[in-house]
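Researcher: Here's a chain I'd like modeled. Treat it as a single chain, no partners, no ligands.
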Amino acid sequence: MADLGSLIRFRKHGVDEKRRFLAQLYREAEVLEKQKKVIEDQMVSEIDLAREMGTADAQAYLGKYLEGARRKVKALEKSIQKMNVRIAAAQEDMRESFAEMKKIEIAQANRDEREEAERQKKENQELDEIGIDRFRRDKEEENRS
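Model: Modeled as a single isolated chain. Structure tokens:
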């Protein structure tokens, strides 16, 4: 039977590549989340600053700033949602590749077990034959004596 080792290594490499790609997607999603958090924190600090100033100009600028910041947050949320869809697809792809690799590994392990059992059976047969031959020789020696 053919050895599946090279196919297993090939599949393992594919799974590793998909794992690295998924890790990259997670990093990108994390960057987007951090950007969103920074904007939200800035919004809170700007609101606090405008309250401290208490002027009409500060309130007017705050309104425009918050409007722009909310647009940025919504855009980031959409990007995060898209990234989550990509992550889910990449996870499923990696799961499928891993399952295929495991099937091949199990097939190879089963082949190895069958070959080992067959080898063991042949070895036992050879030892049995040696034992029978020795027994027969010993009996012939006894009969001659």
